[in-house]
């Protein structure tokens, strides 16, 4: 599971900082999460292959999270894309994009599918045999969802040295990997745990930006491998969190602690701060395993 | 008259090139012309003061000319702007911007005025005592206007050494500067040309992007100080001009020659070319005074 931060600052693109966008590589998928202005340039800079992006998840319709989307969609067309693109985001996103394409007289030549979100409860938005993506309803000034990416458990690992001790037909291997016991011709039952080992542990990633401090999401993100949680403010500006619908570094750390996550990644910093290391320092007073996002940073989990 | 090129490449923003946007400083105005994605970052990089931009001119609704506009409008709000902003562009631009602001629940706190254009003839879009801005209808794949910025002639220069030869009351000075003769108390008429010199020459700038080769605009841009004319292609791709609605370097030079402009500035290069000096070489075979735009380049005319 690889996370590339294309941008992790709030409000506006600036000379050396970008608004929110990140790429999650998991189980051969390349998921683009949020798409602030300049995202397509950051994709190039970070050498992410455009054609591998098939799903884009937009948390909410504040500009610093989606103003780069229409440009990226247009660029896909210029690059003669023909594979389908799926956009998941709040209701209204389809109207915004299609209006701009219509007025520029340039519809896409590739299939463009919008999956508009309206639910205030968590819903599954994408699923295949290896991964499931669901929304994490967030509390912000406008309708906003985080996204939870969960690997599905794979097959159990066949312990061949054990299997070969018995006269087991190869035809049963698939069943054993699915966790079933084996009954030999003489009626002997061999317990599955004797023949297999646990599948490799599943990983999960929860993206939570933007949100005020809100414990409602804790059951959804309980025990995730990595939690990205916005931390717009330091403690010195804690009083701004409520009015702006944002969190402080300590808020994020408290959620991480209560949700017992593996690693907390901080981001969405207010551009008023010059030293983002301070976010880590404050968060670490509450939760130990803290990383700070920064533009161009790549995490391997 | 100072022209700052924020971006001058066609199609998409890339790692080291930006789509069309430029700043014209003339007679204490800062005019922003076109606003591709990333324009606000380029404004910062070129140290253009955001608050001094009061008029934005958008040629057409292809993304590489206006996808940065909504972000800039939003950033103005975050910077607590309170002075009015005027946007001049094709019909539809108001709907695009207002829809995005509405869905992000973030209207501007400053007065935002849209001046939507539909005319296929040249119209005056802005005028004050020192400057006039009019459209230059262009031939492209969608409705598109260039813009002509013209200084107005100032007052004639009073030649004080001459004026003091006569017993002329100070109250007449303003009339003389306007070009009127003086009639002394004894009936003597003093011709204006004896008392004044011509005002300083007016300057003018014509922005023409995007357009196919089209001589209809020549009367409008006749004799301008500077003509920016798109040159998307080199001669080797001349055959693409007709289908895409663009011009080659030689097309631009031919227009410059026929319109007898002072200086031709080329831009809007297709990103297929690595060496933009070739545009200058080809244009110079037809028109002598050619400059090539490049991102971050500043021209003083």
From TrEMBL, chains A, B:
Enumerate the GO terms in the molecular function aspect.
3'-tRNA processing endoribonuclease activity
Q: Which InterPro entries match?
A: RibonucZ/Hydroxyglut_hydro, RNase_Z/BN
- Listed EC numbers: 3.1.26.11
Q: Does the keyword GTP-binding apply?
A: no
Q: Which Pfam families match?
A: Anti-Pycsar_Apyc1 (PF23023)
- Active site located where? 64 (proton acceptor)
**Which UniProt key words apply to this protein?**
Endonuclease, Hydrolase, Metal-binding, Nuclease, tRNA processing, Zinc
Residues bound to Zn(2+) 2 are: 64-65, 210, 268
Q: What class of enzyme is it?
A: hydrolase
Q: Which reaction does it catalyse?
A: Endonucleolytic cleavage of RNA, removing extra 3' nucleotides from tRNA precursor, generating 3' termini of tRNAs. A 3'-hydroxy group is left at the tRNA terminus and a 5'-phosphoryl group is left at the trailer molecule
Cofactor(s) this protein cannot do without: Zn(2+)
Q: What Gene3D superfamilies does this protein's entry cite? A: Ribonuclease Z/Hydroxyacylglutathione hydrolase-like
Does Nuclease show up as a keyword for this record?
yes
- Detail which positions bind Zn(2+) 1: 60, 62, 140, 210
How is its cofactor bound, per UniProt?
Binds 2 Zn(2+) ions.
Record function comment: Zinc phosphodiesterase, which displays some tRNA 3'-processing endonuclease activity. Probably involved in tRNA maturation, by removing a 3'-trailer from precursor tRNA.
Recorded hits in PANTHER family, A to Z, give: ZINC PHOSPHODIESTERASE ELAC PROTEIN 1
Self-association state and partner proteins as the record states: Homodimer.
Q: Which family does it belong to?
A: Belongs to the RNase Z family.
The protein depicted here goes by the name: Ribonuclease Z
The encoding gene is rnz
